[in-house]
Amino acid sequence: MLRSLPRLSTASTSSQPTYLVLGAGSAGSVITHRLREAGESVVLVDAGGWGNQGVEKTGIKTNPLHFWKFSMPSALTYNLDPSSKYNYHYHTTKQPTMNNRSIDQPRGKVIGGSSNLNAMVYIRGNAGDFDTWSEIIPEDGGIDWSYKSCLPYFKRAQRDLTPERPFPDLEPGGTDVEDVKKYKGYGGPLSVTNGSTFSTKTYPGKPKVLNRSPLFDVIVKAGVEAGYKYTPDFNGKLAQSQEGFGPMDQTVSSRGERCSTELAYITPHLDSSGSPTPGLTILPSHRVSRINFSGKKAVSATLIDSTGTEKTITPTKEIISCLGSIGTPQVLMCSGVGPASELSKHSIPLVHDSPSMGSNLQDHLEFYVQFHSKKPVTLFPVGNWFPYPWYRVMVGLEWIFNEGAGLAGSNQFETGGFIRSRPGIKFPDIQYHFVPGAVVGQSSFLPHHAYQAHCGTLRPTSRGSITLNSSDTSVSPNIDPKYLSTEEDVKDLREAFRLTDEILHMPAFDDYRGDKLGHKDVDVDDDDQVDKWIRNNSHSAYHPCGTCAMGTVTDSTGKVKGVEGIRVVDASLMPNMTSGNLNSPVIMMAEKIADDILGKKQMEPEDVDVWFNEEWESKQR
């Protein structure tokens, strides 16, 4: 069925709200949804405009020339382009340990935030991540962050649409479906499925180059050949089976469209014309200039719209900052809450000395290991306009006219894996995303058949910071992750490189593996050569977090210590990174904190099994 035509939308207006939510990204959208569900009036603010608004409900999209950049899963790299207006286009400071390179750090400047720019991979993390949080966050009578207490909120958010898993021959005895269901959610706003749901669809006369690549299955078989287990679901039975190789879920709707938090959580609060329903005011294209305090209490926020006009919003209950790991500490410091020494450099009046504000910055580093493919089974014909522009057109038309069918309905991260880098690691610290294509940077496909494994370590020990360049929030802050600043991080990435090379040389790849790309002159056994290649070729996985960590900057409910009336809900709260992509954990955190904001009792913990390899202390696999 032809997709409905785009229309424009507007924001409604309302009187003084009970809550002011700063930032309409993954967390802000969730918080807004739950507050409105409870009948609270909300003003939601974002510096960006609308993204893929209201597709399933009304067919509304803000910009007919841009909507596909959000809605089409395979178009995920378009808003990473330097010309995109939906991206803050941040960069890190020059990193001495990475040959003085400044690393791209894109963040979503749009309703839905980075959930409208990301790769849509749905990974909750490992049970061990959350149990670690519960151990290091001081008990303050607030929220319990153990895995068993987080699982109900993962499930509340999720609407699982994932079909029966592939590779049953690799799982002796099959999988206990009822047992798997205990870990999944089916009635939430966030649609979750697997890309193969759409990419495997066929029709008479379909060219072979538009079929799903067999390489998605080959990487899983190679992982099993290398001695790792087959894992049918990295999330459904999370605590038992994250380790291994298998299909990887993505946040894609039943129509083969990106399920951003804008689509999942904001759309239900829009009427048929695309306007927010009564009780909700949405202010796109409004930058937060500062939070205003009366003594130690946050009472209002000053916003600046696209014309430079200031306005002040004063909620009756609380201000909730969901501006992300870069934006939240920047705005709080510019408002007088932060390290006194940092604020004095920029003549910012001190409201509260919070020495840890902006510190504890963590991010995932990753690299690509690439090979030529001896068979024409990659994305090359559709990854470039030349020399086969008609194939790209066919993929787009198939998606438009056939309910998301075809390659365009997948983010092309359909399979992957999680392994441990060495004995003594209790749960996976290396993640793989596999792509049956090879790119330069993030978006430019190489002009030949090739494939690549994205490999990155999951729990780096390096810690960086966000500091100010100016008291003006329109000026980007200093983003210094201090990548590879510990020897442990260097060793872990080195070992990850070697393990990746081993997996990609398994017999499953023999019929496909051509020459090495990029790393062909690297001696895998030479530490110095491997380290040099990693320093030259690694880049951010775009997972900054930890800069307003619970236990130091905030309490366990996100309330900023030392002041009143202001709470943080975004990835900056994470005391430690989760082992995987961050979008799903951030959504879970917002779901969980929303109950605390509303004074609701936390959902009952679920008594589920937590499994770790019995031989983790002595064996790597």
TrEMBL record:
<dbReference type="InterPro" id="IPR036188">
    <property type="entry name" value="FAD/NAD-bd_sf"/>
</dbReference>
<dbReference type="Pfam" id="PF05199">
    <property type="entry name" value="GMC_oxred_C"/>
</dbReference>
<comment type="similarity">
    <text>Belongs to the GMC oxidoreductase family.</text>
</comment>
<dbReference type="GO" id="GO:0016614">
    <property type="term" value="F:oxidoreductase activity, acting on CH-OH group of donors"/>
</dbReference>
<keyword id="KW-0274">FAD</keyword>
<dbReference type="InterPro" id="IPR000172">
    <property type="entry name" value="GMC_OxRdtase_N"/>
</dbReference>
<feature type="binding site">
    <location>
        <position position="288"/>
    </location>
    <ligand>
        <name>FAD</name>
    </ligand>
</feature>
<protein>
    <recommendedName>
        <fullName>Glucose-methanol-choline oxidoreductase N-terminal domain-containing protein</fullName>
    </recommendedName>
</protein>
<keyword id="KW-0285">Flavoprotein</keyword>
<dbReference type="InterPro" id="IPR012132">
    <property type="entry name" value="GMC_OxRdtase"/>
</dbReference>
<feature type="domain" description="Glucose-methanol-choline oxidoreductase N-terminal">
    <location>
        <begin position="108"/>
        <end position="131"/>
    </location>
</feature>
<dbReference type="GO" id="GO:0050660">
    <property type="term" value="F:flavin adenine dinucleotide binding"/>
</dbReference>
<feature type="domain" description="Glucose-methanol-choline oxidoreductase N-terminal">
    <location>
        <begin position="324"/>
        <end position="338"/>
    </location>
</feature>
<feature type="binding site">
    <location>
        <begin position="118"/>
        <end position="121"/>
    </location>
    <ligand>
        <name>FAD</name>
    </ligand>
</feature>
<dbReference type="InterPro" id="IPR007867">
    <property type="entry name" value="GMC_OxRtase_C"/>
</dbReference>
<dbReference type="Pfam" id="PF00732">
    <property type="entry name" value="GMC_oxred_N"/>
</dbReference>
<feature type="binding site">
    <location>
        <position position="110"/>
    </location>
    <ligand>
        <name>FAD</name>
    </ligand>
</feature>
